[in-house]
Each structure stands twice: as structure tokens, then as C-alpha cells.
Specification:
101 residues, alpha+beta, two-stranded antiparallel ribbon, two-stranded antiparallel sheet, 3 helices, 4 strands, flat
């Protein structure tokens, strides 16, 4: 158990400086790990601003995935991720129906 905790602590020590690169109020980081070693690291940051206000932001997980895809030249996954992000940013308001009996 102690070895497991040490491994996690080592990975967090690697990840933490990257979270500090975030320009958001809540700083998040994400790490993709393969065979116990980090292969891509991402952090949340603003993606689009309007009148000095962030209108869209990258999640740390998406940033890490994009970096992994770019490092390994996986353009087909990059296109899939772009399609997924496009659908994920469309937020629909839930319909509320009230029925009186």
C-alpha cells in the first residue's frame, strides 16, 4: 500500500507545476499515464474570451488528450475529439413540464 501511495505522490509532484500554468480561478490538471509513466499532461485554461470575460475554456482532460494526439500525430483522433467537443459545448436547457390535476 505504501508503494502505491509513493507512486501517486510522485505523479502528483510531476503534475502540480503544470496546474499552476492555468489562468483560471480553479486550477486543474490532468495526466495520461501509460505503463506507470506520464505520456501527456494538460491543464485548464481559457479558450475564448469576449470583453475580457472567458466564454469557453479547455478542461484539463481535453488539453491532455489533445497534447497526446499531437505528440503521436494521431490526426484521426484529433478530428474525433473536435467533433466531440463541438457537441459537448452545445448546452440544452432541460424542458420543465408542470401538470395540474
Amino acid at each position: 500500500m505504501e508503494q502505491h501511495t509513493t507512486r501517486i505522490r510522485r505523479l502528483v509532484d510531476i503534475l502540480y507545476p503544470h496546474t499552476q500554468k492555468s489562468n483560471m480561478a480553479a486550477k486543474h490538471g490532468a495526466m495520461l499515464i501509460r505503463n506507470g509513466k506520464p505520456v501527456a499532461i494538460g491543464y485548464n485554461h481559457d479558450r475564448m474570451t469576449c470583453r475580457n470575460k472567458t466564454t469557453m475554456s479547455y478542461h484539463a482532460e481535453i488539453h491532455a488528450l489533445r497534447r497526446f494526439i499531437d505528440i503521436h500525430h494521431l490526426s484521426s483522433l484529433h478530428n474525433l475529439l473536435n467533433d466531440t467537443a463541438r457537441y459537448a459545448t452545445v448546452k440544452q436547457q432541460p424542458k420543465v413540464t408542470t401538470t395540474f390535476l
